[in-house]
Amino acid sequence: MESLVTHNLALAIYRHVTAPEMRLYLARQIWEEANHTMAFEYVLKTLPVDRERVFNAHRDEPAVREKEHFLQALTTSMLDPLDLRTPAGQQRFLCNLVGYYVVLEGVFFYGGFLFAYTFRRRNLLKGLATIIDWTLKDESLHLSFGMHLITEVLTELPALMTPNFGAELRALLLQAVELERDYHRALLPQPMLDISADYLSAYTGIRDGSPT
Ligand SMILES: [Fe+2]
Ligand SMILES: [Fe+2]
pLDDT, tens digit, for every residue of 46-90? Predict the structure, then answer.
């Protein structure tokens, strides 16, 4: 997920966001996401986990694969010829921003974060939780930046938010929520450390398949 967001920033977003102050922040975000990738890779290489299985989960575990496909499709749609002078192109750009900033930065990461903190409450894996503290600070700012960017685009181009486009964004969010709930169920067929799949979904703000 950290690599996907880096690729999306570098390949799909940066070239379209030309305001200098926005580009400065995007450069900073790319650097932070690269740090997160390296930090989690370090964790996987240090702890006694089945690395083959973990590194291949994005290919072999359906619930992980589906989340990856959801995000990759948003990036790919930006790599096709995209004319940002047209409402259709501008709406595609907004879908990408909502998918990456609202869904990934705002929803997809938090189940994993909860686990790290659950270990720390038991005085375990404290170094991992410290990594999450630092990562969570960055991700919260990324989400905030993304919300500002989306709001600014809609303020400049209010005609984009038609009822049809609103329905499209709502469907995108509901699809993401469904994917996250499936991921929690695959991750936790039985509760672990007293955390069940339903608890994890509730923590992430998902109840009965709808965001709360
Ligand atoms: Fe990140
Ligand atoms: Fe991020």
Answer: 999 999 999 999 999 999 999 999 999 999 999 888 889 999 999
Q: Give the active site residue among 42, 101, 199, 203.
A: 42
Amino acid at 195: I
| CA 3 to ligand 1 centroid distance, Å | 8
Q: Which of 108, 114, 40, 29 is nearest to 74 (CA)?
A: 108
Residue with tokens 């990456």: 100
Domain of residue 85: give its range.
2-211
The tens digit of pLDDT for each residue in 111-121 reads: 889 989 999 99
Question: 69 CA to middle of ligand 2, Å?
Answer: 18
Mean pLDDT value across the chain: 93
CATH number (domain holding residue 200): 1.10.620.20
Average pLDDT for 24-32: 97
Query: Where are any strands of DSSP class E within 42-160?
Result: none
Compute, in angstroms, the gap from residue 146 CA to the centroid of ligand 1: 13
Q: How many separate domains does the chain show?
A: 1
